[in-house]
Amino acid sequence: MGISKIRPMDWHVLQVVHRLGSTPQHKLAEHIGRQRSTVNGAVQRLLASGWLTRVGQAAHGRGRPAILLSVDRAVGCFAGVDIAANELHCAVVGADGDLIDHASSRLSDDRSFEAVLDQIDLTIRGLLSRVDMGVDKLLGLWAGINGAVDDRGTVVSCASLGWHNAPLGQALEERYGGNILVQGGMTVMHAAAESLMGVGRDAESLAYYHVGRGIGVRFVRRGQPLSGHTLRAGELGHVVVEPNGPRCPCGNNGCLEAMAAGPAIVSAIRKISRRDLPEPLRELVRDYKNQPHPTIVHAAFLHGSASKDDALGQVLNRATQYLAMGAAMTVAAYDPEVLVLGGYVLDDNPVIRKAVRRILRRTVLDWADRDLRIVRGEVITQGRAVGGAAEVCQRFWANPRGVVNVP
User: Phi, psi (5° rounding) for residue 262?
Assistant: First the structure.
């Protein structure tokens, strides 16, 4: 970590500036409750070491304009890496918490642990170089993967990459130093966020049902997530629902994920003759390689009919039935107070959310006695890599490992 260490008092001043944003220097003593001379001394040291920077002046009564101070984003940065099934997304957030840049790339055909690590390293270094920073400026790194992760950052299992007990946290720490945070699938992050600050903040229990590239469920009760004995709780996408169905990346046939996740829906749509598709969807399918899966899925449900007589209607009805089956299994297994429907297949898709609610009312045991709230999530993020980088940034400001000199 190529940054200078600072005194506890200086860190206190720095935290206040970070929390308030651009702040007049003369106001800091009031916020901190210390003498102005003490605070001014800390400010001078922070300016000299590069932690703080002057960003302008503000009017201050009849006297001289007040100097505005801000955390200097050039002092260091935080990176977030989203390891998806076929892609790698990376984002860099400055020390001030603002997004600096982001980039995406396709994973190579070699999905081994070592090969993906090398691609992560190449992507991070390239992005840091693009924003005129080196690896020595990296204050923290978040890595997210669609799989089960233990508290040491070891990937217990990741079906899409074929990883088992892969020491991702340890490997990243060896390459980049401390302040490494490895988390499991998107569902984990969103379930925690919705429980803490979203639709479940006043609820005893919450289940987050995620349908996007994959399918998963995470259950949170009184702020505590249920991980299970082997940290695989909620891998609903790999329950076989159609034994003769298509092959799933996990190796089984007919998993819920292989039948009704976003890529499965898009694959089924592409098998339909284009002349049988609505014109807006036809254009998207024609340009398939340049169209994101969420765009195609949303267009299909927006322009498709509810009829089971046409090919598209059959595909959408089948996917909806399977997704409702997954939601029903979630309710039966966890009996949550709140069921959050998330992921790009369910989010911003009122047609399928309405259908899932209707099917649940008809199929779930003792529905009338459950008092279940089925809702769309409130917590919106700019993407996993950006959200992850921001999360490790927040953790750093709360607990700056290796930065503050302890007397």
Answer: -50, -55
